[in-house]
Amino acid sequence: MANQVVQCPSCDAKNRVPTSAPGSPRCAKCHKDLPWLVEAGDSDFEQAASTKRLVLVDLWAPWCGPCVMVAPILEKLSQEFSGSLKVVKVNVDESPRIAQKYNARSIPMLLFMRDGELVDTVIGAQPEHVLRSQIEAQLA
Ligand SMILES: [Zn+2]
Q1: With a threshold of 0.70, does the pTM exceed it?
Q2: Residue 64 annotated among the catalytic residues of the structure
Q3: How far away, in angstroms, is 34 Cα from ligand 1 center?
């Protein structure tokens, strides 16, 4: 999977952010933590979920209306928690193995993962403040 380009929230520099990396991506210019939101699928999910950051997996599909509503919320939260959260988006139509593994029959389905282990599951589109407090609880 190709690197993704993100704009640094602190200095606006454009940075390439890898799908997976042993460390945590920082801005090449100002060295602040970067928001880490990537797309992964059957072939690279485990690497993408393997990070020191809290991982929020978004199991979604393009035809799913509530998924489309949740997407900008996750983008915003990935910026708010740029030092501690990684958002991994998985298109379940293109990733049958992951969809089956996590039993993603009802989407959107969000998975909280720590060190590659599932710690919580959230089914259905949640409002921004609910997701924010769930992230804060996981990070506490
Ligand atoms: Zn920067």
Answers
A1: yes
A2: yes
A3: 8
Fold of 36-139: Glutaredoxin (3.40.30)
The rounded distance, in Å, linking the Cα atoms of 78 and 7 is 12
Token pair 């952010």 in the structure block, residue: 17
Contacts of residue 93, defined as CB under 8 A and 6 or more positions apart, other chains included, come to 61, 62
User: 102 CA distance to ligand 1 centroid (A)?
Assistant: 35
Alpha carbon distance 51, 130 (integer Å) = 24
**Domain range summary for the chain, segments of one domain joined by +:** 36-139
Q: Does the annotation mark 30 as catalytic? A: no
Which residues are paired to 117 by β-bridges? Answer: 114
| Å from CA of 128 to ligand 1 middle | 25
| Alpha-carbon span 35 to 17, nearest angstrom | 9
Chain segment 30-64, per-residue pLDDT in tens: 999 999 999 999 999 999 999 999 999 999 999 99
